[in-house]
Amino acid sequence: MKLSHIFNIGRREGRKLRPGHRKDPLMNKFALMALPVLAASTALASCGGAGGTTRDSIRAVGSSTVYPFAKVIAESLAKANPEFKSPIIESTGTGGGMKLFCAGVGADTPDIENASRRMKASELADCQGNGVTDITEIQVGLDGIAFAESKEGKQLKLTPEIVYKALAAKPYGKEQTAKTWADVDPSLPADPILVYGPPSTSGTRDAMKELILEAGCKSDPEMKALKEKDKDAFTEICTEVRGDGAYVDAGENDNLIVQKIEANPKAIGVFGFSYLEENADRLNGLTMNGVTPTYESISDFSYPGARPLYIYVKKAHLDAIPGLKEFVMEWSKNWAKGGLLAKSGMVVSPDTVMKASADAASTFPSLTADELK
Question: Which has the closest alpha carbon to 195: 253, 269, 245?
């Protein structure tokens, strides 16, 4: 149904009835169906400032890992389409970005969420509750949760079990007593455990919990069984990070983590693989289960910390924000081998995933709750 028809129905429904005139129930139904569309349209028109105009630049929020890649795509769009203003990219963390993205529809809310993990079902529910009912999910590439140290470090050989025992607030439900790496595993040096990593709002932190901490926790059969019996208890025991200073929340600035561990050979940093690759002359990537984080080990998922990266697009903004469709298409033009994203350190998705993502970037299918289960 065209917007003009919807507005006409609204006007007819708003007229006073003449004596003996009976209201058409079908018109009532259409008028009620039109309310969400009218609300979205009004929000976009009213939030943009004077004159009821919408924003004239794209706004994306979210993951610090995806941030540099989004900047590359924004610059590419500006060069290829000078008629559009350069997109505004904000590094808020995946979790923080989801809250902003899901706050509603309108020019005062973001158009895109950059994410270093998949949207949670609870986040989609929040979006829908706030009127953000149509969202397109697009996987743009791969990355890895890299554990790294300075070039002068001791090349710790890590496993998910070692990392869990070192960083868990209550390893296997017991008091955390490990002060040094040797306390965790006698084969490791007796250096104090000091890990700089992302905050709780970060998708990298969420991915670390899911891919590394949970895997280490489930090495204990009792914990594996606990996940089936009491999921909340399992989550608390297996993913809560200690807060006594052994793990240091370094904020959403991955470059700061690089600086911290470069300055302290006994410290370890946790961030996206792209930052490790970018600083390969300054840092060493630590093995996980004997596998070094590399482009190849992430692309074939042999490295335990490999993960997909996403963007989420607010469909209600596609026709209202200049250049938004073109910005999304710019991602698809540059995520293959030899493209700008690969040259910037992003790991290319498998061919089947790239094809599905390219289709999504042109047809904008709506994400459903069933897909997130």
Answer: 269
How far is 269 from 258, CA to CA, in rounded Å? Answer: 7
* Burial category of 264 from C-beta neighbours within 10 Å (exposed 0-12, middle 13-18, buried 19 and up): middle
Which of the 8 DSSP states describes residue 163? H
pLDDT score recorded for residue 44: 57
Query: Residue type at 358?
Result: A
Is 39 a residue whose pLDDT tops 80? no
Total-model pTM: 0.74
Same domain, 223 and 345: no
Q: Are 145 and 203 in contact (CB under 8 A)?
A: no
**Nearest residue to 10 (alpha-carbon basis) of 20, 1, 19:** 1
On whether the CB atoms of residues 120 and 343 are closer than 8 A, the answer is no
Q: Which residue has the higher pLDDT, 40 or 57?
A: 57
Q: Indicate whether 13 pLDDT > 50.
A: no
Tell whether the model's pLDDT for residue 205 goes beyond 60: yes
Reported as a pLDDT band with limits 50, 70 and 90, residue 194 is very high
Domain total of the chain:
3
Decide: 261 and 268 in contact? Cβ < 8 Å: yes
Type of residue found at 187: S
162 & 295 share domain: yes
- Statement to judge: residues 330 and 358 lie in one domain: yes
Write down how long the chain is.
373
Please indicate whether residue 14 or residue 136 has the higher confidence score (pLDDT): 136
Distance from C-alpha of 194 to C-alpha of 266, rounded to nearest angstrom: 7
With 60 as the cut, is the pLDDT of residue 363 above it? yes
Q: Is the dihedral of CA 154, 157, 161, 164 positive or negative?
A: positive
Looking at the structure, do residues 255 and 134 belong to the same domain, yes or no?
Answer: no
Q: Are residues 172 and 280 in the same domain?
A: yes
Domain that holds residue 17: 3-46
Q: Is the dihedral of CA 94, 100, 103, 104 positive or negative?
A: negative
212 to 145, 291, 303, 352, 358: CA distances (angstroms): 9, 13, 11, 26, 30
93 HSE (CA, 13 A, CB side): 19
Question: Which value, in Å, is the radius of gyration of the alpha carbons in the chain?
Answer: 24
Q: Which two tokens stand for residue 66?
A: 């995806």
DSSP state string for 227-250: HHH-HHHHHHHHHPBP-SSSEEE-
